[in-house]
Specification:
Elements lengths: L1 E5 L16 H10 L4 E4 L10 H14 L2 E5 L3 H5 L6 H4 L2 H10 L3 E3 L8 H13 L3 E5 L9 H11 L4 E5 L1 H6 L6 H6 L4 E6 L2 E3 L6 E4 L3 E7 L11 H9 L5 E4 L9 H18 L1
Helix pairs in contact: 1-2
Length: 276
């Protein structure tokens, strides 16, 4: 299993379009802490980034021997707004971005059955270039639960179109978010994203799920016993022989500094992965 750090950890709370820490600083820190890769978001590079910026970041990561585990090529994919589905309708720039940074996986989103033929065509184009498309289990999409994900994957019917397990989103949507759900998705599992949260009726932050409407959620600290346990997920991944990316997708909480958050993530997950 390979450990990846999402650049989300360098984005200020509640912002998805800017990075508070430049990649020239973030990447060496991630490498020094033992991460194998970076999950790239539009706060660092997007489909609108100049070619020279893409080349510069690629050269930096190559020097550090850091891979790009996956690319999320625009802000709508990160915020899951109405424009998140547009990537499937013009997948070429997203594939170009992935190729430019040497990544094999591109994040996409689906909101309705109308997106299925676009997903099929996008997957076919990606397959021609040896790339894979990945959909997170995510509120407000056709992947709100493990059952939804499996049904949608069957409709798309492409071997290079798979899923990234994300337990906080599954929790918000009322579905199983533990090891059993993870194993059910195993045949289609391309990535594992981990963030930890709890339902909190006092929280001003909501996940706008289809199944349960707006669900107040609060992100917790890594290792918080009230949050989503990480160890059972890692243990189950090892049980069925998963050898792909495990991506720490934890956002900064109010008052939290990125350096401390990165150290906490590295300490927790390096130990868990080595132990199992």
């Amino acid at each position: 299993m390979k450990l990846s750090l999402s650049v989300r950890i360098a984005e200020p709370p509640k912002q998805k379009d800017v990075a508070a820490i430049p990649i020239e600083t973030l990447a060496p820190r991630a490498k020094a802490l033992g991460f194998d890769g970076i999950s790239m978001r539009a706060s660092v590079l997007s489909v609108d980034s100049p070619a020279e910026d893409v080349a510069r970041v690629r050269q930096l990561l190559d020097r550090l021997d850091l891979s790009v585990s996956m690319v999320s090529g625009d802000v709508p994919l990160a915020s899951n707004d109405a424009n998140a589905i547009q990537a499937l309708r013009n997948i070429t720039p997203y594939l170009d971005l992935a190729a430019g940074v040497g990544s094999g996986m591109v994040r996409v989103m689906m909101h309705s059955d109308e997106d299925v033929p676009f997903a099929q065509r996008a997957a076919d184009e990606a397959a021609e270039r040896g790339l894979r498309l990945v959909h997170l289990t995510h509120w407000g999409t056709m992947f709100e639960t493990a059952e939804d994900a499996l049904e949608t994957l069957a409709m798309v019917g492409r071997g290079n179109f798979g899923v990234a397990f994300e337990p906080a989103n599954l929790l918000a949507c009322g579905g199983d978010h533990g090891p059993d759900a993870l194993e059910r998705l195993a045949p289609h599992l391309f990535n594992v994203f981990y963030s930890t949260a709890v339902r909190d009726p006092k929280s001003p932050m909501t996940f706008d799920s289809r199944r349960q409407g707006p669900v107040p959620m609060r992100f917790t600290a890594l290792g918080d016993p009230h949050g989503i346990p990480a160890a059972p997920l890692v243990e189950r991944l090892q049980t069925f022989g998963y050898d792909g990316w495990f991506t720490v997708h934890q956002p900064l909480r109010d008052g939290e500094h990125a350096d401390a958050a990165m150290r906490a993530a590295a300490t927790l997950f390096r130990e868990l992965i080595a132990k199992n």
